[in-house]
């Protein structure tokens, strides 16, 4: 139903709903999904296949970093061990003990691992998938959960083959995948991905993420996409589109238009929601100091840590925390800069901002963070 208030009409149009009550409910649900929905990823397989290394790679940690999953040539995991994502604490990767060890027989494995806790399973092998892997996959499927096969340590296979005169990288990768599929003959349409934890951006990493994005429910997609490392411009664009879709909800939730739709009443901005929104973007795009430092070390470009001059990035770096949520207290420097993105808004501390202006602010700030991330990708040679 149309309203005399242009801000209300704009909010209804952005939400696709017919009433403000429905639009508000939808906005609150979408923001809750963006900020708070949990994702639990189980990483399993036989011992020594590189489960812990895979978990560290997805979390962008080295094996000797604080909080990294323990790695070793023998089975180092004796119980299901949770590893919280360093910047997205609602995402947890679980390092499960190796299946088929004397302590964890294949037939009782899922019961001991508390099967229902996990959203999906990654079954890892560093050579050929074996009977235990197939048995586990069949049981996961029987219980109607998602599972994916990861053939790890692909970099080792490439190094072993590239000394041969007849070496062809693409043919080698094709042969490895064919062998995997042959070993998984008892599984209908198995989804197999070739991954190197030494260089997560190589091989099938982005294909794995794309497949998960197609298979998971939308609210779980939000959690996944925020947490995965950016390895290309295409991956960054996926993240940007996700935040663009959520911007209208943040604009609506940040104002009293949700509870007091009085014609002509400007929206008093709940700044904590805006700062939380941009903080999510900030960490998801890898613009925080720890992420930039880690990337600069990997590509041997120390200047990467300090070359971003975006005022919004600088403000968020100074005031933000990885655990900032909807109820967080916003930093003054961040707010001051945010409101400068919308001409005529004035002081940020108690700004009366309409829905349209708030949405404009969010889109402009998101664009600035996107541009900063593009600069990082260009400097890192990941375009």
Automatic annotation (TrEMBL):
Keyword Hydrolase: yes
Cellular component, GO, one term: membrane
Keywords: GTP-binding, Hydrolase, Nucleotide-binding
Biased composition (Low complexity): 71-87
One Gene Ontology MF term: hydrolase activity
UniProt family annotation: Belongs to the TRAFAC class dynamin-like GTPase superfamily. IRG family.
Stated name of the protein: IRG-type G domain-containing protein
Source organism (scientific name): Tachysurus vachellii
